[in-house]
Amino acid sequence: MRKLTRNLSPQTFPAQFTGQQRIDWELELLKEFRRVRNSEIESIDFGNKSGRWKVAKENLVKESLSKCAYCECFFETVAYGDVEHYRPKSIYWWLAFSYHNYSASCQLCNQKFKRAEFPNAHGNYKIPLVRRNSTDTYLKKSAGKYTVDPLNNTGLSLTNFIKNHNKERPLSLDPYIDDPSLYFAYEHNDATREVIIKELKPSVKEIVDSCINLFGLNRKELRDLRYRGLIKYRFTRQVVETSVDPILREAGANLLNSEFYDEKVEFCGMYNFYKNKPVILL
Predict the structure, then answer these.
(1) How far is Cα 202 from Cα 244, in angstroms, rounded to an integer?
(2) DSSP readout, 131-200?
(3) Which side of the chain, N or C, has fewer Cβ within a 10 Å radius?
(4) 101-102-103 Cα angle (round to 5)
(5) Partners of 143 in the beta sheet?
(6) Cβ proximity of 67 and 79 under 8 Å
(7) Which residues make Cβ contacts (< 8 Å) with residue 262, sequence separation at least 6?
(8) Among the residues of the chain, which ranges form H helices?
């Protein structure tokens, strides 16, 4: 996992998640939740609404550089990938159509492992105030206040969105807010030929362990793939640091930057973790 940045170019950003459409969708959710309050329905049905967030996928894939936001594997060549709701819509229903709640995820991380789980340390966000007798006028005035408009200075500010996240402190990382390099360490084992993710320091162990379990970040396929990459990385480092041939050293250095450290590369988070460690320890 690595730190991600939102792509908010007005030329490419999906217009549905900004302006009046964002407010209208939020109002729809508020009215639906009023029906839940009145026991007219058990829960909000998102079954016929998935097309709304699917239009965000192209922009999300650009943000993650065609890699899963969680396991860092390229997914487009072998699977369609998902628009993943970081905070599950079944719990955080008011964020169902919030762009800042989305990421591009592989189907294994999203569907096999995370699903609708979301452990957190300090309780959920404060739910929007919707009573059984809330009027349409009240709900209309409230609509738009609970989500971030990615392009306009309306609705919930991004600053407050991040404050809410930090206050709640989920037992998982949002790669758009949290910096995974401050949480994750990597440990290789040449006997078992694998690399596992672990906590960088004791103070983050609870979050890291939960995140690993939530997204399956130490599943066997990932442990094996990371090790195969580490073997190539270790060889390239040895060439750069031990060769007496300046041309070979320069070629190796270029290879390190383009094929290991660059954010476009699979598992670049791991390679950058090992970057400043002595090659003898690799």
Answers:
(1) 41
(2) -TT--HHHHHHHTTSSSB-SSSS-BS-HHHHHHHHHHH-BSS--TTTS-GGGTEEEEEETTTTEEEEEES
(3) C
(4) 135
(5) none
(6) no
(7) 268
(8) 19-37, 50-54, 57-63, 107, 136-142, 158-168, 205-215, 220-242, 246-256, 268-274
Structure-token match 């690399």, residue found: 195
Residues whose CB falls within 8 Å of the CB of residue 32, separated by 6 or more in sequence, listed in order: 41, 44, 93
Give the 3-state secondary structure of residue 218: coil
Helix or strand or coil: residue 236? helix
74 three-class SS: strand
Amino acid letter for position 171: L
How does pLDDT run along the chain (282 residues), one tens digit per residue?
A: 999 999 999 999 999 999 999 999 999 999 999 999 999 999 999 989 999 999 999 999 999 999 999 999 998 766 778 999 999 999 999 999 999 999 999 999 999 999 999 998 777 788 899 999 999 999 999 999 999 999 987 899 999 999 999 999 999 999 999 999 999 999 999 999 999 999 999 999 999 999 999 999 999 999 999 999 999 999 999 999 999 999 999 999 999 999 999 999 999 999 999 998 988 777
Q: Is the torsion defined by CA of 98, 103, 108, 109 positive or negative? A: negative
What are residue 155's phi and psi, to 5 degrees?
Answer: 75, -160
Residues in the chain: 282
From the number of C-beta atoms within 10 Å of its C-beta (0-12, 13-18, 19+), residue 175 rates as buried
d(CA 44, CA 31): 10
